[in-house]
């Protein structure tokens, strides 16, 4: 047997690949890695762990024992195709951890809200005295925190799911389906197919927590139930295993749990998230009383629809991670008017026309910035006034966008209203990432002499 045949190849480092490599080397595996970048802290760390730096697979037909491909690498990349053709199995980090680390797994996915539900579920289970860890698409990578016997709550992107051929979580949670990453998947159908991988291997011992208000997910739930999966549905529209009643209380299996107004995080989308958390936690044995306490305690994630300050009667809301139409719709719907919407960045190929009716109804002014500014002006300019920010630098553009929003509210709304950053696009044209974009927004607000604001004010 060749040396290569005994090696596991980590294709692509970054957060996911490096975490897998470090776990592999710690367990004594022979490891090679391929990274197209010449250097970087992750490359240094991989070499320090004794991993061999490999050349691109190319046409070399010698198989590896296994390939773990980082989610940032397209699943149809020529190198991954060559590896499969040579007989190497190509999987992702989450699939590998699940195969090698026994424990309970809750997989959480959807177009919007999966990060909040992952963190909320983990915190609720931990507060209930259970050994719960969060990983996956959320920081940290799953390989960095997984341990035998633990309850693993895993946020899963479509990129991660498309490299999980046998992953079978004990509980699968699907929150919603919209459009995202069409530039990578090629079509909405392909994107949804990747999401469906989360439930592809569920069996009679599995639980599927699902949004019954989503027409596509409802059909998936029916199919899962027909093959013996325990399906637990939640709804904001009708009675289900978890639902919000007419009195505004969240009801779990027929018993009121708490009032929606007791949640720190606001908006209908957060009520739906809370119902998903409640069903997921009780599915792994958490007591409903402890679940209610956990739902009350959660104050949200940074960068997810959070107050960003107040100047007089103008309030600022930051939702920098809202890059998908579904998430942006939830943010706009949850924000009282008068409302100025700040949007822009690197487009993701999604069809944004479905937002037009909501924008026409709720938004006073659209301030567009970044690479997609003209695209958004063209998409919404017939239903709402627009301002285009010309500055190319990210922080200068954000200051100009905030300034335009404040000027509009002072000139037309008596200096009262809300300014919402919900970009509807990726951040990479002007910022390091969505966290950097959020920081730029908050800096621009702070320059106006803004004061803090409590959640829910």
Task: Outline the structure in words.
Helices cover about 35% and strands about 20% of the residues. The chain is an alpha/beta fold and about 450 residues long. The longest helix is centred in the C-terminal third of the chain and has 19 residues. About 55% of the residues are buried. The model has no long low-confidence stretch (mean pLDDT about 95).
Tell me about the largest β-sheet. Answer: 9 strands, mixed
Q: Enumerate the spans where pLDDT stays under 50 for 5 or more consecutive residues.
A: none
Number of helices: 17
The rough form would be described as globular
Helix content: 25-40%
Distance between the termini: 66 Å
Rg of Cα set: 23 Å
Count of distinct strands: 20
Helix-strand category: alpha/beta
Strand content: 15-25%
| Average residue-wise pLDDT | 93
Widest sheet, order of strands: 7-8-6-9-10-11-12-13-14
Report a brief summary of the structure:
It is built from 17 helices and 20 strands. The protein has helices at 14-26, 41-48, 78-85, 93-100, 114-127, 142-145, 158-161, 182-185, 188-196, 215-226, 268-283, 288-297, 325-334, 356-362, 373-380, 394-412, 434-446, and strands at residues 8-11, 31-34, 52-53, 66-69, 90-91, 104-109, 132-136, 151-155, 171-174, 207-211, 230-235, 242-244, 249-252, 255-259, 306-311, 313-318, 339-344, 365-369, 386-388, 416-421.
């Amino acid at each position: 047997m060749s040396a290569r045949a005994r090696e596991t190849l980590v294709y692509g480092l970054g957060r996911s690949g490096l975490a897998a490599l470090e776990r592999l080397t710690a367990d004594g595996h022979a490891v090679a890695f391929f990274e197209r970048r010449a250097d970087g802290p992750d490359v240094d760390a991989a070499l320090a762990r004794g991993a061999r730096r490999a050349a691109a697979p190319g046409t070399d037909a010698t198989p590896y024992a296994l390939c773990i491909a980082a989610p940032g690498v397209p699943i149809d990349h020529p190198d991954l195709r060559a590896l499969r053709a040579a007989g190497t199995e190509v999987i992702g980090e989450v699939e590998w951890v699940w195969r090698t680390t026994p424990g309970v797994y809750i997989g959480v996915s959807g177009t919007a809200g999966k990060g909040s539900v992952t963190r909320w579920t983990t915190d609720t289970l931990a507060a209930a005295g259970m050994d719960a860890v969060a990983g996956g698409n959320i920081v940290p990578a799953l390989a960095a925190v997984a341990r035998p016997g633990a309850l693993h709550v895993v946020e899963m992107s479509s990129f991660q799911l498309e490299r999980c051929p046998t992953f079978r979580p004990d509980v699968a949670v699907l929150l919603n389906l919209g459009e995202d990453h069409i530039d990578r998947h090629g079509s909405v159908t392909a994107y949804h197919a990747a999401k469906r991988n989360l439930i592809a291997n569920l069996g009679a011992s599995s639980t599927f927590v699902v949004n019954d208000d989503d027409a596509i997910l409802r059909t998936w739930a029916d199919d899962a139930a027909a093959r013996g999966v325990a399906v637990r549905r939640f709804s904001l529209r009708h009675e289900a295993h978890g639902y919000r009643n007419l009195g505004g209380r969240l009801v779990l299996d027929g018993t009121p749990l708490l009032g929606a107004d007791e949640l720190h995080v606001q908006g209908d989308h957060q009520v739906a998230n809370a119902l998903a958390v409640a069903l997921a936690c009780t599915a792994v044995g958490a007591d409903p009383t402890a679940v209610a306490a956990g739902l009350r305690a959660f104050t949200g994630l940074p960068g997810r629809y959070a107050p960003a300050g107040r100047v007089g009667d103008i309030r600022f809301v930051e939702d920098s991670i809202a890059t998908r139409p579904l998430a942006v719709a939830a943010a706009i719907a949850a924000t009282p008017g008068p409302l100025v919407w700040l949007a822009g960045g690197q487009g993701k190929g999604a069809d944004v026309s479905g937002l037009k009716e909501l924008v026409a109804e709720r938004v006073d002014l659209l301030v567009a910035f970044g690479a997609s500014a003209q695209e958004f002006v063209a998409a919404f300019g017939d239903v709402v006034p627009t301002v285009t920010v010309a500055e190319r630098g990210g922080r200068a553009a954000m200051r100009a966008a905030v300034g335009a929003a404040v000027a509009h509210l002072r000139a037309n709304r008596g200096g009262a209203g809300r300014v919402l950053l919900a970009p509807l696009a990726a951040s990479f044209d002007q910022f390091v990432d969505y966290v950097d974009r959020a920081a730029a927004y908050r800096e621009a607000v702070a320059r106006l002499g803004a004061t803090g604001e409590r959640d829910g004010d």
